[in-house]
Design brief:
The complex is a heterodimer.
Chain A lengths: L1 E5 L5 H10 L3 E5 L2 H4 L5 E4 L4 H10 L3 H9 L4 E4 L1 H6 L9 E4 L10 E7 L3 E7 L4 E5 L4 E6 L2 E7 L2 E4 L10 H14 L1
Parallel strand pairs in A: 1-2, 1-3, 3-4, 4-11
Antiparallel strand pairs in A: 5-8, 6-7, 9-10, 10-11
Chain B lengths: L2 H13 L3 E5 L2 H10 L3 E4 L4 H7 L8 H10 L4 E6 L3 H9 L4 E5 L20 E5 L2 H9 L4 E4 L9 H19 L5 H8 L3 H10 L5 E3 L7 H9 L5 E3 L1 H4 L4 H13 L4 H7 L25
Parallel strand pairs in B: 1-2, 1-8, 2-3, 3-4, 4-5, 5-6, 6-7
Classes of the chains: A alpha/beta, B alpha/beta.
């Protein structure tokens, strides 16, 4: 089982380390040639969504990624990765995400809170977004102070925070078990 | 570790693999964002112009910085003078995302840097070698960049600083544990920081390249030397075709290990900034603040 990690910009190495700790092989997707390899799942990491969108479009990666996700490729999006999945960007998930929803860096924070199906986890929010609209097929997994910060829909799992910046591997394990292995 | 320090180090992690561009107007900031910059540095004059104008160079007008904050959704950074904690307080008050305590501006204090742990807002600082980098981290910097030689378009100083840091890191890694105490003494930094580098083979914070980056090849060079991203100051908006050059440098940082893509990116970029050679420089900004 190999997991592709979009490595255009941002904290992709942290996701790779997380998966490698779980004994899962990873590879980086930087341009179209990398995309041709077979993968059991895809991670869209944190970083700046505008920077990632720019490079994704110019490298011709946008359409193939969109198509693969719509055809059922398991995907995990964190922070900027969640923004990429929404109806304003790749248009894969039936959600609208509010960018920089907690303001600038002074609004960044860490807290411990519950995710349905996982339990209490440490959540790191860095200039984070949240989901402001959920479509019918979307299941909310965590609502913090009235805002949706984790949700799933079909083959897609998205969260506002950064599990890859903590030592806690449970969200990645949950995604591998419920989304990636389920599909095999 | 305090939450705030960790959160501020985390923001720098999100900038990795990206390009931070100097901008002087909201229009330039939009061009940078559209080209794929992961953050912008708001300042009244880019380093090349600071160099040309001479005189005392200070923090930019907060109103000008606000205009840029309103124009883009990516993080906005701004510079304060070395040791000028009042300028830093002002930048924190306007909720800047990152403060660069920068040798590009005229230093306000020739002994003390800002006690950056007193602030909630994060700081990036320049360094020429591992000792400077760790001293700044000890003062609370949550991101490091090479000093390079700003406003020159000459990459040699950034290369020198990055190579120096990497070779000193490798030296610490290869030391036996009882040698680390002496290393800490020589570097003038706490033992814990030396121990971290010894065990992890890297700085405890993200390390970018800055100062003299003018082409996609320069950016790729710095990434291959171990930078985790690059700052481009004068190199973009002092060149013939800023939009194209900005996009090319962004993609060069992503594909820094792919010469075929770099070759395509380097085509038809128009005039690069003219640049000044190291020997022609009258003012060495990298010598400010050690």
């Amino acid at each position: 089982m190999r997991i592709g990690v979009l490595a255009l910009q941002g904290a992709f190495v942290e996701h790779e380390r997380m998966l490698q700790r779980l004994g899962v092989e990873t590879f980086e997707i930087r341009h179209l040639a990398d995309w041709q390899q077979p993968m059991a799942g895809l991670i869209l990491p944190g970083g700046e969504s505008t920077a990632m969108m720019r490079v994704m479009k110019d490298e011709g990666l946008m359409e193939p990624i969109q198509k693969a996700i719509k055809e059922g490729l398991p995907v995990l999006g964190t922070c900027a990765g969640m923004i990429l999945l929404d109806d304003q960007h790749l248009g894969c998930m039936d959600v609208t995400v509010k960018r920089n929803a907690y303001g600038r860096q002074l609004g960044s924070f860490q807290t411990t809170y519950n995710i349905k199906g996982i339990g209490d986890v440490s959540m790191v929010f860095i200039r984070a977004p949240y989901i402001e609209r959920c479509g019918e097929g979307v299941e909310v997994l965590s609502t913090l102070d009235g805002h949706v910060v984790a949700a799933k829909e079909k083959n897609m799992l998205a969260c506002s925070f950064h599990p890859e910046l903590t030592e806690d591997t449970r969200l990645h394990e949950y995604w591998l078990k419920e989304f990636v292995q389920q599909k095999d | 570790m305090e939450d705030r320090v960790q959160l501020n180090r985390n923001l720098a992690q999100m900038l990795k693999g990206g390009v931070i561009m100097d901008v002087t107007t909201p229009e330039q900031a939009k061009i940078a964002e559209e080209a794929g910059a992961c953050a912008v540095m708001a300042l009244e004059r880019i380093p090349a112009d600071i160099r040309a104008a001479g005189g005392v160079s200070r923090m930019s007008d907060p109103k000008m910085i606000r205009g840029i904050q309103e124009a883009v959704s990516i993080p906005v950074m701004a510079k304060c003078r070395i040791g000028h904690f009042a300028e830093a307080q002002i930048l924190e008050a306007i909720e800047i995302d990152y403060i660069d305590e920068s040798e590009v501006l005229s230093p306000a204090d020739d002994i003390y840097h800002i006690d950056k742990r007193k602030f909630k807002v994060p700081f990036v600082c320049g360094a020429k070698d591992l000792g400077e980098a760790l001293r700044r981290i000890n003062e609370g910097a949550t991101m490091i960049r090479t000093k390079g030689e700003p406003g020159t378009g000459d990459i040699i100083q950034a290369v020198r600083h990055m190579r120096m840091m990497q070779s000193e890191i490798r030296r610490l890694v290869s030391m036996s544990e009882d040698e680390l105490y002496e290393a800490a003494k020589q570097l003038r930094v706490p033992y814990e920081l030396v121990q971290y580098v010894h065990e992890n083979g890297k700085l405890p914070v993200v390390n970018f390249a800055a100062g003299g980056v003018a082409t996609p090849a320069d950016a790729a060079l710095m990434m291959q030397l171990g930078a985790e991203g690059v700052f481009v100051g004068s190199g973009i908006f002092k060149s013939g075709n800023p939009v194209k050059r900005a996009q090319a440098i962004v993609k060069a940082v992503t594909n820094y290990n792919n010469p075929k893509i770099l070759a395509e990116l380097s085509e038809d970029l128009g005039e690069a900034m003219v640049g000044i050679n190291e020997q022609e420089i009258e003012l060495l900004m990298a010598e400010r603040g050690k």
